[in-house]
Write a structure and sequence with these properties.
319 residues; mainly alpha; Arc Repressor Mutant, subunit A; two-stranded antiparallel ribbon; two-stranded antiparallel sheet; elongated
Length: 319
C-alpha cells in the first residue's frame, strides 16, 4: 500500500500567481502598429449598453478621415447589415454621446446633415498649448496706463408738466364662439293633431336605422316633433323630410339634435298654394273664392264661409 506507482502520470501543475500566460479565455498575439491605426478607448469597446453593431460602427466612423460620407445608404452599401439595423445603431451612438447629427443650411441654400464623432463623450476638447519661447532681453518696466476720461453725461430730457392724458377706453369684445343673436324658434303646426305629432315623432326616432349618427334621445325627439309636424302639415312627404335631415352630414357630428333643429328651421318650405292662388289673374275681373257649405259640404262661391244657396233657401222655407 505504501509503494509508489511510477506508471501513473504526474498531476498537471497548477498555475502560479503572476503567470502572464492564462490557461483559459482569450490570448492576444499583438504586433505593434507603425502606421494605419486608430486609438479606441475601452469605454467604447467594452460599453455595456451598446450593441455590437453600434460599437463596430463607432470604431469604423472614428477610423474614417474628416469629410468622409457616413450616410445610411453609404454604410448599407459597404456592410452586410440592413438599413434598419444601421439606422438603429446610429441612434444608439447618438443617444450615448458618440455622435451628434444636425441639419445645417449652406450659403447656397442646400440643407445637409453634419455629423460630429466624439471619441470621448462628455470630455471637452482642449485647445493645444503653444510653449513659450525664452528671450534674453531684459523685461521692460510697464507703466500703468493713464485713467481714461469719463464720458460726458448727456443732459436729461425735459419733463412733461401738462395734464395727464386720460387712460385708453377698454373695448370688451365678444367671445369668438359666442352667439350674438338668439336662434330662431322652432316652427309649430297650425293645427296640431295627435296623428300628425305621432307621425313626426316616429320619423325622428326612425332616423337611427339608416343613419346611426342621428341617434336622438327621448327628450330631443319630443322637442323636435313640432318642427317635423309643421313640415308634414305643409305637404312634405316623409321621404323628403328624411332626405333633408340626413343628407351631407358633417364628419364628425358632435351635436345631432342642434343640427336637426337648424335644418328644420332654416329649410322649412312654404305652405302649398290653393287652387285660387294658382289661377291666372285677369285684369278687371274680381274672382270670388270657393267656400264649403257648413251643412252639406257643397262648394259655392262667397266672400265669407257659411251655407250655400239651397241650404239657405231650405232654411227659409222651413222657417
Amino acid at each position: 500500500m505504501g509503494i509508489q506507482q511510477v506508471s501513473a502520470p504526474p498531476c498537471a501543475a497548477s498555475p502560479r500567481s503572476g503567470d502572464p500566460t492564462p490557461t483559459s479565455g482569450v490570448m492576444h498575439s499583438n504586433v505593434r502598429h507603425a502606421a494605419g491605426f486608430t486609438v479606441i478607448g475601452n469605454h467604447l469597446s467594452r460599453h455595456r449598453a451598446l450593441s455590437l453593431v453600434a460599437i463596430g460602427l463607432a470604431v469604423h466612423i472614428q477610423s474614417l478621415p474628416a469629410g468622409a460620407k457616413i450616410g445610411i445608404k453609404v454604410l448599407t452599401g459597404r456592410f452586410p447589415e440592413s438599413e434598419s439595423r444601421i439606422a438603429a445603431a446610429l441612434r444608439e451612438l447618438e443617444a450615448a454621446g458618440y455622435l451628434l447629427r444636425s441639419r445645417v443650411r449652406l450659403p447656397d441654400g442646400r440643407i445637409v446633415t453634419r455629423t460630429v464623432s466624439y471619441n470621448q463623450p462628455g470630455a471637452e476638447a482642449r485647445a493645444p498649448t503653444v510653449p513659450r519661447q525664452r528671450t534674453t532681453e531684459r523685461p521692460v518696466a510697464r507703466t500703468a496706463p493713464a485713467p481714461a476720461a469719463a464720458p460726458p453725461v448727456p443732459p436729461a430730457p425735459p419733463q412733461y408738466t401738462g395734464p395727464e392724458p386720460p387712460p385708453p377706453a377698454r373695448v370688451q369684445l365678444p367671445a369668438p364662439t359666442a352667439r350674438t343673436t338668439a336662434p330662431p324658434p322652432l316652427p309649430r303646426p297650425r293645427v296640431g293633431t295627435p296623428e300628425l305629432h305621432r307621425a313626426a315623432a316616429a320619423l325622428l326616432a326612425d332616423l337611427r336605422r339608416r343613419t346611426p349618427q342621428l341617434t336622438l334621445s327621448e327628450g330631443d325627439v319630443e322637442s323636435l316633433t313640432p318642427g317635423v309636424a309643421t313640415w308634414l302639415e305643409r305637404g312634405a312627404r316623409p321621404d323628403t323630410v328624411r332626405h333633408v335631415l340626413t343628407a351631407d352630414l358633417p364628419v364628425p357630428l358632435k351635436h345631432p339634435a342642434k343640427l336637426l333643429r337648424h335644418r328644420i328651421t332654416a329649410l322649412l318650405p312654404p305652405p302649398l298654394p290653393g287652387a285660387e292662388d294658382l289661377a291666372p289673374a285677369r285684369p278687371g275681373v274680381i274672382v270670388i273664392p270657393l267656400q264649403n257649405c257648413d251643412a252639406c259640404d257643397r262648394a259655392f262661391r262667397s266672400r265669407h264661409p257659411g251655407h250655400c244657396r239651397p241650404c239657405r233657401d231650405g232654411r227659409h222655407a222651413a222657417a
